[in-house]
Amino acid sequence: RDNAGNIIDFVAYTSGDVVDWSKIWPEAVAYHQWSPSDIGITWAFDWSSGRAGRSFGRDVYSLDTDNIDVARDDFKVFTNPTKGRANDDTPPGAVTAIVAAPWALDGEIRLVWTAVGDDGYRSALDGLYAIAHSTYSLSWSTAGASVWVSTNGAAPGRNVSRVISGLEPAVTYYFRIWAYDEVGNISAMSVGATTWAQDLPPAVPSAFAIYRSSLSSVDLVWAHPVQSIDDIWKYVLYSTAAGAAPAETDIVAQILHPGTTAPLDIDESATYYFFIRTLDSLPTVLASGLLGPVTSYPLLTEPSPPLNFAGTAVSSASIKWTWTQASSALDGYKIFTGTGGLVAQIIGPATYWLQSGLAVNATYSAYAVAYNSVGDSPPSTLATLATLARQPANPYFVEVIHDAVSIIFDKNGNPADTRYGLSYSDDDFTSSITTAAAFADEHLSNRFDITGLRHSTTYWFRLWAYNSRELTSVYTTVSTRTLSGSDYVVISQFASKGPSGSGDEFVEIYNAGSTDVNIGG
């Protein structure tokens, strides 16, 4: 009863049967209890545990509100009759100190605040903290709370913390906190706290691999990083020729998240080294480290044939075969005779082969193929040429007169069909040169007779041998001086001019020189 003797507290007892509240409410009103706005309300707070509960009279279903200073005008229901405690109508204190900071992982912020108490700041709060956050300032209310933290009896003044995750990295967030006690009383809104969510460089992708999709294309594939997958913007792919760390100029593709495949065209004969990295989202666009390389090697097929195959006669016993390398995907070259006989196999890249031990002034044909582990290339073009002839050896003069000479030389092992050439000069081949025998003259003997020379003149003579392709050997050079005009007479005619029966014989002689010649013996 109150001081006036009025009954102000009403307790309804039940033995466990279903309560018909429509009959109880009118009875309670007679004892100065507030009735609900809807007489059909079929529930009430069960205080069987003896805990202090929230005043029902202050509930939204009440016709009026309770006096905040007096625990009255409420309904208590006991399924097992016990004495109830005083109502708890005092909310927890408001949080007045919050610190917010980016935390360990992408999209995380850690909040630290000073614990409040139950009934203001008097005792440990056994309830919840409701945390609301937003990326912009708004009209705050508990309806916006998305994180609930149990207080676990934290004493007032102690630090309480909570890591908020799943936020947008590098985005600024605003926070407010409310405290709830065990019966649902709500504190006033806390002071604000503001910071940005942690934004770490993204992790590298995983399972980076390469698959050839055709002769001239590959597919690069990868898996998303395990960490921070929601913060990925795109993947950047690089290609280098030597496997060194790539530069921005080496970018070959940029694939937006969540793509995990990049098709690329390549030169099947070249080697490529591919790298990948992750870029996270705006506004910071941080980059992960590099992953790679994965390597695309040339797809082996038969190499292309050597180009510009040709031969050069180096000596009378050797030929140098040359070509242009046409393919990089090869293991070496094979040289064949014109009839298909293998004469050489060269390992590794090369552009020539010297064939030796050949016959003098003999004709040879050859071609080349490139080879690798797959097989041989088509053949090159066929080249035909002859070794050089040997130079004439040991020349000497067998006759020298005033206007002619005769020279004999050693053929030096040249075959019988070898042709020889000769030229002469009266100034040691400085400017005056006369060719007495060329390839077309088909001179095959080892003797030259040169006429029409001037008397009393020194001449130099060059002798050489031709091979079957008109290439000349090294020259052999000799010299001599023709005789003067006074050094000889010529017998021009024999005649018998004596009388019939006479034994006299006559010889007609004329002097071809310019001075007298004594022929008397």
Structural commentary:
The chain has 521 residues and is mostly beta strands. It contains 1 helix and 34 strands. The strands form 11 sheets. It has a 4-stranded antiparallel beta sheet, with no helix packed on it. Strands 15-14-17-18 form a 4-stranded antiparallel beta sheet, with no helix packed on it. Strand 19 and strand 20 form a beta hairpin. The radius of gyration is 60 Å and the shape is rod-shaped.
- Give the biggest beta sheet: 4 strands, antiparallel
Looking at the structure, what is the overall shape? rod-shaped
Strand order of the largest sheet: 8-7-10-11
- Count of distinct strands: 34
What class do helices, strands and sheet pairing give?
mainly beta
Helix count? Answer: 1
- Output the radius of gyration: 60 Å
**How much helical structure, as a percent, in the residues?**
under 10%
Beta percentage is: 35-45%
Oligomer: single chain
Average pLDDT confidence is 81
Low-pLDDT parts are: 31-86
List the helices and strands and how they pair.
Blueprint: E1 10-13, H1 21-29, E2 75-78, E3 98-102, E4 109-114, E5 117-118, E6 123-124, E7 128-134, E8 145-150, E9 159-164, E10 172-180, E11 193-196, E12 206-214, E13 217-223, E14 232-240, E15 251-256, E16 261-265, E17 272-280, E18 291-296, E19 307-315, E20 318-324, E21 332-337, E22 342-347, E23 352-355, E24 363-371, E25 383-386, E26 393-400, E27 405-410, E28 419-425, E29 434-437, E30 447-450, E31 458-466, E32 476-481, E33 490-495, E34 506-510
Parallel strand pairs: 1-2
Antiparallel strand pairs: 3-4, 4-9, 5-6, 7-8, 7-10, 10-11, 12-13, 13-16, 14-15, 14-17, 17-18, 19-20, 20-23, 21-22, 21-24, 24-25, 26-27, 27-30, 28-29, 28-31, 31-32, 33-34
